[in-house]
């Protein structure tokens, strides 16, 4: 796997390079500002772009904007956005095209190296990964209709929204995959969501619903 | 050479000498100018008077469009001249109509108190003001006329009149400064903003500045945290995570990563401490101003004598502003003054906190520099003042005063 990396803090950039390398992901270009990232995203020989939200010169949402712009030119270009803060609004911008292959994680999550690498691979494979914080903020915002769900179902929904597959959810909750399947069916029925076969499409449906669309 | 733009001197009788004579003549010229200005004032007053009732017919609007800006030009000139004579700055605050269509402007002018004061001034200038300002010129012109008359036509009438010249000139000599001053004061009264208005504006301005500077301060703190402690802690997490992964396969690399993480933790804490110090120095919270300034001077590369005479604990915002003001002054001393010693002297008389910060350096401190301007704004929020005496070659003393009654 090959990656493009954008992070303005040298300390974090080096750390991310190391971690990606340790996971067997080769960083083919590593940049520290918005314009360079835009140029790097023009390349077509990488499997995932990992970027910070805030980059010079403006230190606002340079990285996020570059990612969204690149995806509008090349649909489903795999992008993983990292940030010190979680901002549901940014998550919505990333998810807006409903094509998957995006991730939005807090930088803190990187310290769980295996999780982070798994997330990167998932995104490169077209999956969607959202930080639990984002999901939590979405879940609390859509409080009322969620009352229809049981405690277990809500747990499954949260894990699903983070972009986990049925198998991963089953492992996490110490139940069988079949049980998870039952829960998800029940959730989809209760929330009136279109049934979908593949994991990612399901995740996107849930996120779209949580985003209140 | 006489300085034409000098203010009016004292009103007490002065010795009969050439400079005093020149000064009297200068004031007479000004006075004649004031009197001459009655002509345009009268014309403009008449046009304005016609414009107001005919405004609805449309003609008045056109008249106003001509007369009002002309009036403004005239009163602006008067403000300048009277300001020079009183050694003051007379300001006006017209309502801004630059973004309005031209024809709509007269309707704003109608509601603008400043414009009505301009109109009042026109009336004054054309009547009482005219008489007041004509006197000095007339008192000089009389004797000059009689003298010429006596030369041209040696009749008794001119002779008797010429005898009047002495008393007239005496009256001119004595009253001219007072008359010109009276005129300038009247202009300031009519055209200048009242003290209360000026004060209100000052307060509004300083409030806006405080809001701006606290917003900038908050942005700075957010950036400091984001780029400093937060980033370092995230990096620690990454290193520790990677070390955990490498533990089994490459223990040496893992140990190196952990060591790096530990060092980064130390610098993250340093970052946090410096951000906290920038918000509110803990020593200021604990010890008050005297202790905090003392602590501040310990870390400086030159000896600083601090004396605090009976300064009580003051409200926290004032202590904080004063502390950062002193810190800025001392930082300037260290950076620019090339001083060998410095001092901080603070006193409190029950009403005001006075702090003087000085050094024996090379002087030339710039009160308009960004640092001192910042200090000035900080103190301005509490009606404080800042005065800089810093001749080239030094020494420099910066005096700050903040009104704050003993709590």
UniProtKB/TrEMBL annotation, chain B:
Transmembrane feature ranges: 119-152, 158-180
Reactions listed under catalytic activity: ATP + protein L-histidine = ADP + protein N-phospho-L-histidine
Domain Signal transduction histidine kinase subgroup 3 dimerisation and phosphoacceptor: 219-283
Stretches assigned to the Putative sensor domain: 36-191
Domain Histidine kinase/HSP90-like ATPase: 322-404
A Pfam family per the record: HATPase_c
Keywords attached to this entry: ATP-binding, Kinase, Membrane, Nucleotide-binding, Phosphoprotein, Transferase, Transmembrane, Transmembrane helix, Two-component regulatory system
Domain of life: Bacteria
EC annotation from Swiss-Prot or TrEMBL: 2.7.13.3
Molecular function terms, GO-annotated: ATP binding; phosphorelay sensor kinase activity; protein dimerization activity
GO CC annotation, single: membrane
UniProt cross-references to PANTHER family, sorted A to Z: NITRATE/NITRITE SENSOR PROTEIN NARX-RELATED, NITRATE_NITRITE SENSOR PROTEIN NARQ
Name by which UniProt lists this protein: histidine kinase
Organism of origin: Nocardioides thalensis
